[in-house]
Amino acid sequence: MLKKRIIPCLDIKNGRTVKGINFVNIRDAGDPIELGEFYAQQGADELVFLDITATKEGRKTFVALVREIARHLNIPFTVGGGISSVEDVAPLLQAGADKVSVNSSAVKDPELVNRLVEAFGSQCIVVAIDARFVDGEWIVHTHGGSRPTEKELFSWAKEVESRGAGEILFTSMDHDGTKQGFAVDALKKLGEIVTLPIIASGGAGIMEHFDEVFLKGEADAALAASIFHFKEIGIPELKNHLRGSGIYTR
Amino acid sequence: MKIAIIKYNAGNTQSVIFALNRLGIDPVLTADFEEIQKADKVIFPGVGEASTTMKHLRELKMDKLIPSLKQPVLGICLGQQLMCKYSEENDTACMGIFDQHVLRFMPSNLEKVPHMGWNDLVDTSGPLMKNLPDPNVYFVHSYYVPINPDTSAATNYIVPFSAAMHKDNFYAVQFHPEKSGVQGQKIIQNFIEICD
Question: Which residues make Cβ contacts (< 8 Å) with residue A26, sequence separation at least 6?
Answer without folding.
Answer: A34, A35, A38
